[in-house]
Amino acid sequence: MKSKILWLNLKTGLILFVLFCPIVFSCQVSNESRNEDKTTDKVVAVPNFNADSAYNFVQEQVDIGPRIPNTKEHDAAGDKIIGRLTAYGAKVKVQAFEATTYDGVTLALRNIMASYNPEAKKRILLATHWDTRPWASKDKEDPQAKFDGANDGASGVGVLLEIARQLHGTTLPDVGVDLLFFDGEDWGQENGGNADSWCLGSQYWAKNKGNYSAYYGILLDMVGGKNAQFPYEGISRQMAKKILTKVWTQASEIGYSRYFIPRKEGAITDDYYYVNTIAKIPMIDILHWEPNAGYFGDWHHSRKDNMKIIDKNTLKAVGQTLLHVVYYQD
Ligand SMILES: [Zn+2]
Question: DSSP string covering 280-310, please?
């Protein structure tokens, strides 16, 4: 993804400057890992996230082609996600709507939600976006080119589809789990444009979610990059600090502190911003951060965002952490 980056001076609360830029199988039966819950002494069976499977889900999205709204590839990719979620036993709801882009194009979009334990009152929301930006706008050689969006879009889809497959194959956690795939995230205006031109799907969902609510949410965006690091992003710290700490602590406890870095970084407008501010559901962002690159590497919104930069180890770190988070609820 990305819409805009706001670098915040946290001591003064002043915005120093605003940098606009645009914005994770081999289907094997999983083995469950058993873990001692230190707080209750109960033994919880947490599914074993299969990184090969997640990787294949990423590849599947990429193989369909760029998931650019109003194209047959976009339709096919959405249908594929719905088909897999249905096959994995979820209650699936599709929110179809139209939205107009900053450059005047009316898009036919679909937000897709898959629910497990639909009757449970306490719910955890896991989200990502599934569309692809229509142009490789930061590609130095051809900014009009289409690109694969392997990390920016497909990686989050891969992780959530593997979580769906795992939830289908084992005892569900006590909480309800909703997997939400936002559409229309990446058709935004760069270089100082309107921040609200991004994240069309999450904005629509937040305004039209009915009586849906969740205990908290976790957004995934670009979660498959090799040697990825995920920092303490600014808006997450401001709006859902407890959840941020909880997830990073869980990641560290199961050996993924190399990926989940408790380092304070600036704030980014992404889908979770609208879930926090409009839907009023506290939500954090697990988002790729590249040291000395202003959050993103040179693959961002370029044709370098392809399967070559996707690493199964990163997909595993994110997916296993999320499974532990939902199975160890206090
Ligand atoms: Zn993007």
Answer: ---EEEEE-BBTTTTBS-TTTTSTT-SGGGB
**Rounded Cα–Cα distance for residues 114 and 123 (Å):** 12
Q: Which two tokens stand for residue 14?
A: 């002043």
Question: How many angstroms does the Cα of residue 301 sit away from the middle of ligand 1?
Answer: 6
Cα separation of 18 and 191, whole Å? 10
Mean pLDDT to the nearest integer, 254-269: 94
Reported for 10-17, long-range contacts at CB under 8 A and 24+ positions apart, including other chains, are 10/234, 10/264
Ligand 1 centroid–CA 23 distance in Å is 4
Give distance in angstroms: CA of 140 to centre of ligand 1.
Answer: 16
CA distance 52 to 261: 24
Distance 300 CA to ligand 1 centre (A): 7
Percentage of the chain lying above the pLDDT 90 cut:
80
Query: What distance in Å separates the CA atoms of residue 115 and residue 28, rounded to the nearest whole number?
Result: 23
Going from the Cα of 270 to the center of ligand 1, the distance in angstroms, rounded, reads 9
Phi/psi class of residue 50: alpha, beta or left (left: φ > 0; alpha: ψ in -120 to 50)? beta
pLDDT score of 72 more than 80: yes
CA 3 to ligand 1 center in whole angstroms: 7
Rounded distance between C-alpha atoms, residue 280 and residue 275, angstroms:
6
Bridge partners (DSSP) listed for residue 55: none
Tokens linked to 74: 């976009």
Beta bridge partners, 32, equal 47
Give the confidence band of 69 by pLDDT, cuts at 50, 70, 90.
very high
Cα 12 to ligand 1 centre (Å):
30
Confidence of residue 26 (pLDDT cuts 50, 70, 90): very low
Q: For residue 198, what are the β-bridge partners?
A: none
* CB neighbour class for 141 (10 Å; exposed up to 12, middle 13-18, buried from 19): exposed
